[in-house]
From TrEMBL:
Lineage, top ranks: unclassified sequences, metagenomes, ecological metagenomes
PANTHER family with a match to the protein in the record: CELLULOSE SYNTHASE OPERON PROTEIN C, TPR REPEAT-CONTAINING PROTEIN MJ0263
Organism of this sequence: marine sediment metagenome
Name of protein: Tetratricopeptide repeat protein
Gene3D superfamilies on file: Tetratricopeptide repeat domain
PROSITE patterns reported in the protein's UniProt record: TPR, TPR_REGION
Keyword Repeat: yes
Protein keywords: Repeat, TPR repeat
Keyword Protease set for record: no
Pfam family of the protein (one): TPR_15
Length: 285
């Protein structure tokens, strides 16, 4: 904010700056207490003092968003863009707000507007890639991921999402190479092993699929890993072990999609019958 004042030739009164910093501190305290309404009131005052500063609009919009008043958040950001139409931060925040609301098309339009101003704006590149992936436009998404990787090649979140996009695009070998590199850097990240195991499964390499899913579970067991390991073991013909992990999935399915749980429960009953029949046939011989 101070830099903007200096660049416009307007040096702020030190007393005004102190008062403003006090207000910001108070607003942050209210935010920490989850009292977003009171925080918003203070940021409204700051906005009236600094109506040409993008952060004034962003801070107020964030409080509205945290209070689940998304329409108010959007109005604040749109008001800011009327005053500062080329603000990257305002356009980006508007895009993120639309994204939270599930309005993917408007979110993408906002991010594209950011990239017209600054083609190397990282958050807009990453968000565009993610939105395009959701829309099923995998090839376009990959192009944005690649541009983002040129800017932040070490960004773990970006690399994970790029690998996921490669896998869901059917580019399994490329995804596996990416995951294996991540595994070297982050040997205790269960999500890497989990995703790698699923990708190996899609490729048909069941041994490596099982190996990585078991490693994921040893680090941090999740219902998702239990289910995918059960499927991989079933494909390998290891039915008893598959049933074991399917049972673990059902025992830890709190918060899972209800329709999926019902289907898995039916599958569990089917697998148990298959195992009993198999044991019965063996005893006959």
């Amino acid at each position: 904010d101070l830099a903007e004042d200096i660049s416009s030739g307007q040096l702020p009164d030190p007393k005004d700056r102190i008062d403003e910093l006090k207000m910001i501190h108070q607003a942050e305290m209210y935010e920490f207490q989850a009292n977003y309404q009171q925080a918003a009131k203070i940021f409204e005052k700051i906005l009236s003092i600094r109506p040409t500063t993008p952060s004034s609009y962003v801070n107020l919009a964030l409080m509205y968003a945290k209070a689940k008043k998304f329409d108010e958040a959007i109005k604040v950001l749109e008001k800011g863009l009327q005053k500062i139409p080329d603000s990257e931060i305002l356009l980006s925040r508007l895009g993120h707000t639309y994204l939270v609301l599930g309005r993917s098309k408007q979110a993408l339009e906002s991010m594209q507007a950011v990239l017209k101003i600054n083609p190397r704006y990282f958050d807009a590149l990453l968000a565009s890639a993610w939105i395009l992936g959701i829309m099923g436009k995998k090839e376009e998404a990959l192009s944005y991921y690649k541009k983002a990787l040129e800017i932040e090649p070490e960004n773990k979140f970006l690399r994970m999402n790029y690998a996921i996009n490669l896998a869901t695009s059917g580019m399994f070998d490329e995804a596996i190479d990416f995951y294996n590199n991540l595994k070297i850097e982050y040997p205790d990240d269960y999500q890497i092993y989990q995703n790698l195991g699923i990708t190996y499964g899609n490729l048909g390499d069941l041994d490596k699929s099982v190996e990585n899913l078991e490693r994921a579970i040893s680090i941090h067991p999740t219902p998702f890993s239990y289910l995918n390991l059960a499927v991989a073991l079933r494909k390998k013909g290891e039915l008893r072990e598959a049933i074991h992990y399917l049972k673990l999935y059902l025992e830890n399915a709190q918060g899972e999609d209800e329709a999926r749980v019902r289907e898995v429960r039916k599958e569990f009953i089917t697998w148990e019958k298959m195992l009993k029949n198999r044991i019965g046939n063996m005893m006959m011989y």
